[in-house]
C-alpha cells in the first residue's frame, strides 16, 4: 500500500517536472534531433493577393525560401555560378520562382518555376536555356536548402552547414545534362555582416540577399548541346528575394565576386530609383571573414574604360571594367581593377554578366595579380 502511494506521488511529480522543464534539460543535447527539415512547395501558378516577405535573419533558414508565396509582383531565386581560370568558360544556374512581371529579364511566361542555365565557351559562344517545371519543392535543413524542379530534371542539394552544394541537370529534350558541385571556401554572410540572427537582410529597397557561399571550389561536368564542359573554377552561391518588382526599386546595380591574392571578395553597389546608393562589402581570407559591412563608407564600385558614366544610363554603352574601393577594417583598404574578359550572359542593354580578371593591392602593399571574377551590371533608367 505504502509503495503504491509513493509511486503515485512520484509519478505525479515526474509528470509535473516534464511539463515545466524544457525538453533539452532532460535529454542530453547531442541526442536531440538536429532540426526538422522544412518542406515548401511553390506551385507553377502565381499566387493571387498579398504575400509576406521576411527580411530579418533567424537562427536557421539562411538559404531557405523567404516569401510566403510568389505572386506576380514578387520573386525569390537561388543563384549559382562558376568561372574557369581561363576566364572564358563559365556556367550560371539560377532556380527562379518569379514571373517576368516582377523580374523583367525572364522570358514572358505564366510559369513561376523556371531554371535558367547560362553558359559561355572559350571561343566566345554564350547562350541560355530556360527549363520550366510543374512545381518547385524546396526543403530547408538548418541553414542549407535543396530544391527539386519537378518535371524539369533540375535540382540542387545543399548541406545543412552550407559547406557543400550539388546541382544536377538532366534534360535530354533541352540538350543539357551534368553536375556542378560547390565546396565552400568562405563563411556565409548577410548584407550588413556575418551570418548571425536578427540582421536586416535588405541589400536594396524591398530586396533581400543571403550569401550562403561567397567563394567555393566549383567542379563542373556538363554536356551542353553536344559540347563537353568540364573544369574546376571559382564558384559562388547566393539568393535574392523581393516583395515588389525589381524594376520598381533598382536604377542600377553592380555586383560581383572573385578571388584575388589571399582574399575572397563580394561587392554590391546599387542605386535606387530615388538616387540613394546601397552597398555591401565582404572579404574573407583563409576561411575567416576580414570585413563584412553595409556602411555607405565601406565600398565604392565605379565603371572604368569605355562608357564610364555614373550613374549609368540604359541608353549608353558599357564600360570595359570597374574600379573597386573596399574598406577592410584593420587590414587597410583594398583597391581593385576589374577588367571585363568575356560575356557570360546578355540580357540586352539593361543587363550583362561578365567574367573578369582582377588586380589590386591592400594599401600600400604589393600588387596582387591573377584575380578571377564574375560580375554583373543592371541599368534600368
Ligand atoms: C503581392 O504581395 C505584395 C506584398 O504583400 C503586395 O504589395 C502586392 O500588391 C501583391 N501583388 C499582387 C499582384 O497582388
Ligand atoms: C564554340 O564552341 C562551342 C562549344 O564547343 C561550339 O558548340 C560552337 O559551335 C563553337 N562556335 C564557333 C563559332 O566555333
Ligand atoms: C544558421 O544561420 C544563422 C544566421 O541566420 C546563424 O546564427 C546560425 O549559427 C547558423 N547555424 C548553423 C548551425 O551554422
Ligand atoms: C562526367 O560525367 C560523365 C557522364 O556522367 C562521366 O562518364 C564522367 O566520368 C564524368 N567525368 C568526371 C571528370 O567526373
UniProtKB/TrEMBL annotation:
Any Pfam family hit: DA_N
Domain (Diels-Alderase N-terminal): residue spans on this chain: 54-241
Coiled coil ranges: none
SUPFAM superfamilies: AttH-like (SSF159245)
Official protein name in the record: Tyrosinase family protein
Species: Lachnellula occidentalis
InterPro entries, A to Z: AsqO/PenF-like_C, DA_N
Keywords of the record: Signal
Start and end residues of each AsqO/PenF-like C-terminal domain: 247-379
Annotated gene: asqI
Origin superkingdom: Eukaryota
Amino acid at each position: 500500500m505504502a509503495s503504491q502511494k509513493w509511486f503515485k506521488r512520484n509519478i505525479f511529480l515526474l509528470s509535473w517536472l516534464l511539463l515545466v522543464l524544457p525538453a533539452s534539460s532532460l535529454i542530453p543535447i547531442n541526442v536531440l534531433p538536429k532540426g526538422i527539415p522544412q518542406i515548401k512547395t511553390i506551385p507553377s501558378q502565381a499566387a493571387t493577393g498579398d504575400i509576406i516577405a521576411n527580411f530579418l535573419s533567424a537562427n536557421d533558414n539562411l538559404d531557405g525560401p523567404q516569401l510566403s508565396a510568389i505572386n506576380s509582383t514578387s520573386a525569390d531565386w537561388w543563384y549559382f555560378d562558376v568561372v574557369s581560370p581561363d576566364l572564358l568558360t563559365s556556367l550560371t544556374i539560377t532556380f527562379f520562382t518569379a514571373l517576368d512581371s516582377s523580374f523583367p529579364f525572364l522570358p514572358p511566361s505564366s510559369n513561376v518555376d523556371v531554371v535558367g542555365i547560362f553558359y559561355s565557351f572559350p571561343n566566345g559562344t554564350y547562350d541560355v536555356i530556360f527549363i520550366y517545371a510543374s512545381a518547385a519543392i524546396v526543403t530547408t535543413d538548418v541553414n542549407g536548402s535543396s530544391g527539386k524542379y519537378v518535371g524539369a530534371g533540375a535540382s540542387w542539394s545543399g548541406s545543412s552547414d552550407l559547406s557543400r552544394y550539388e546541382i544536377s541537370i538532366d534534360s535530354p529534350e533541352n540538350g543539357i545534362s551534368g553536375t556542378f558541385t560547390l565546396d565552400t571556401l568562405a563563411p556565409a554572410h548577410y548584407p550588413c555582416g556575418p551570418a548571425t540572427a536578427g540582421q536586416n537582410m535588405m541589400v536594396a529597397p524591398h530586396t533581400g540577399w543571403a550569401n550562403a557561399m561567397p567563394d567555393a571550389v566549383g567542379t563542373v561536368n556538363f554536356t551542353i548541346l553536344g559540347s563537353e564542359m568540364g573544369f574546376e573554377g571559382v564558384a559562388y552561391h547566393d539568393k535574392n528575394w523581393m516583395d515588389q518588382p525589381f524594376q520598381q526599386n533598382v536604377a542600377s546595380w553592380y555586383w560581383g565576386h572573385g578571388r584575388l591574392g589571399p582574399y575572397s571578395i563580394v561587392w554590391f553597389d546599387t542605386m535606387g530609383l530615388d538616387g540613394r546608393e546601397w552597398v555591401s562589402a565582404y572579404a574573407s581570407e583563409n576561411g575567416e571573414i576580414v570585413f563584412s559591412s553595409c556602411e555607405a563608407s565601406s565600398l565604392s564600385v565605379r565603371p572604368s574604360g569605355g562608357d564610364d558614366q555614373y550613374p549609368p544610363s540604359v541608353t549608353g554603352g558599357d564600360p570595359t571594367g570597374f574600379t573597386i574601393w573596399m574598406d577592410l577594417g584593420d587590414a587597410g583598404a583594398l583597391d581593385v581593377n576589374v577588367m571585363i574578359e568575356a560575356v557570360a550572359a546578355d540580357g540586352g542593354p539593361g543587363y550583362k554578366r561578365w567574367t573578369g580578371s582582377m588586380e589590386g593591392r591592400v594599401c600600400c602593399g604589393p600588387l596582387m595579380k591573377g584575380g578571377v571574377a564574375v560580375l554583373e551590371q543592371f541599368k534600368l533608367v
